Amino acid sequence: MGLSKKLLPLRTMVVILTAAIGTVTVSASVLPFLTGALGQKPTGNFLLTVNPSSLTIMQGGSALSTITVVSVGGFKGTVALYTDSVGGSFRALFANRTLTLKVNGNSTTTLTLTAPINVTGDYRIIVTGTASVQKKTISSSALMSIMVSSNSDFALWASPSRVTQNAGSSATVVIDVDSLNGFSGNVSLAAMTPFGFIAIMGGQNPITLAAGGTVSTTLQISTMTNTTLGTYNITVIGTGKQRVHTIAIPTTVTDPIVESLVLTGLSLSTPTNLVLLLQNTGVGQVTLQTYSVTDKFGDIWSLHSWAGPSIAPNTVAVADILIGSSCSACTYTGILFGFQQFSLGQTYSVTVTTAAGNRFDFTVTP
Fold it and tell me: Domain boundaries in the chain?
């Protein structure tokens, strides 16, 4: 059979030669046409992503990102991961450095990046995955943006850390601002007070810190006579270089008139009149308004409209405690006729109450 002189497509010509001769060696230029016929499948590829792709890390600190590789076009195999930093020397640690992909599947791992201790600013990290398929190397990469922030900071301290003051008075608190990790620059101070007639006056503001230094300023906490008694939190806020710190100073406002009575002596003027010597050891005038006397059986004589003595600070006054027939305005509670007079050697409980409502209890034996 003679060969036709008409040119045929290469694939057709190969078929004719095979039929005529039986065996033929196929050149490399023919292989692309034979790939499908020989049953070979394309190698496919994979896609690598990072999430998040932008991180802010403090000097010497660490942050995590998730690495995901996805099979594309029927790829399957093992993907090796590595990083390359553009500027800076970051420590990169993969939870798994190799990931195995099934056809049309995906796999994930985490990447921990640790920033150097001595750099700040913006950096780039390239995360790359590579795989070898049919003696070919394929790869996919993703870019990460890293912002390394300074770990310099400042600290606030209050001395004293707690304040107790009378209504209508002032107290002084020293605020110390310390530089940490080389912090330098201005720190602005502000104070917040709750409603309750409390005023704050400060000293130097803003303060300027040198690296490694400490600066002190003074706050004056003032209350008014009508400030509600109780405990408040004074909040001091420091702001500098995008750093904000607060401290709370518990402030207790007390009654400026502190009443205190001490029994310095006693005697019986009559069987129905017990005389007490009371000393005012407080800081304000004390006026006695009521009293009650109880015997060992629980019988009680009380007087609620007592025009008792007013005792100045650091002075002693006489207080007449009347019962029975000597006190027509008194009220008696107990066994009928059981407690009509004081008896020598017997013990009694005497309670006196001031006009301010403070109660003082004394145990007496005439």
Answer: 45-149, 153-254, 261-364
